[in-house]
């Protein structure tokens, strides 16, 4: 195990200072089994359940579930537990995705400072016809306009394209399940 980590560090990290702490994929100590995936699935739906309730949901005892949750946290599969806020109820019903085009590398210190704004929920470096993708929630179209003005004040920003969400049909955190896409094109949830 140690030898693998040393090799990974040599292969992945020679330019660590240039990558600005890009989040690495967590190293899973052991593969996830069906119970782990059920636990993660239940917690993704409602993290407020007790270990007793969680055990009943997945078919394990409370101490066994507690032990597995500790291991899932230690492995990085379960990073943190958060409250999911209702955007409309807190005064931010306006959801938009903003494609940002700029000169040079998109992950500038200036652009990453946008993460400090509570309206910016996600910042992604993407492949395609744009460099960065922002997910933002605002109080109104005027608030989005002010956010865009702040972006355009940055000297490296060439253009933006905003996609305003009219309706949301599915929005959730990462899911523990994996779909097996068979050669036949049929979906087989695992």
Short characterization:
The protein is an alpha+beta fold and 190 residues long.
Keywords:
190 residues; disordered N terminus; four-stranded antiparallel β-sheet; 7 helices; two-stranded antiparallel sheet; alpha+beta
Structural notes for this entry:
The chain is of the alpha+beta class and 190 residues long. 34% of the residues lie in helices and 19% in strands. The chain is built from seven helices and six strands, in the order αααααβαββαβββ. The strands form two sheets. It has a four-stranded antiparallel β-sheet, covered by helices on one side. The protein has a two-stranded antiparallel sheet with strand order 5-6. Helix 3 (34-45) packs across helix 4 (51-58). The model is unreliable at 1-16 (pLDDT under 50).
């Amino acid at each position: 195990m140690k030898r693998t980590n040393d090799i990974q560090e040599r292969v992945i990290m020679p330019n660590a200072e240039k990558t600005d702490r890009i989040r690495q994929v967590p190293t899973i100590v052991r593969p996830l089994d069906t119970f782990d995936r059920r636990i993660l699935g239940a917690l993704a739906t409602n993290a407020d359940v007790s270990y007793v309730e969680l055990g009943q949901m997945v078919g394990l005892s409370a101490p066994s579930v507690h032990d597995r949750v500790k291991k899932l946290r230690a492995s990085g599969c379960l990073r943190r537990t958060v409250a999911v806020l209702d955007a409309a109820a807190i005064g931010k019903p306006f959801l938009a995705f903003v494609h940002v085009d700029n000169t040079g590398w998109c992950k500038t210190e200036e652009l990453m400072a946008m993460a400090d704004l509570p309206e910016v929920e996600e910042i992604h470096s993407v492949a395609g016809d744009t460099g960065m993708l922002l997910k933002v929630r605002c109080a109104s179209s005027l608030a989005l306009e002010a956010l865009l003005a702040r972006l355009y004040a940055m000297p490296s920003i060439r253009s933006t394209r905003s996609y305003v969400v009219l309706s949301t049909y599915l929005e959730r955190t990462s899911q523990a399940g994996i779909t097996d896409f068979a050669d036949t094109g049929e979906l087989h949830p695992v």
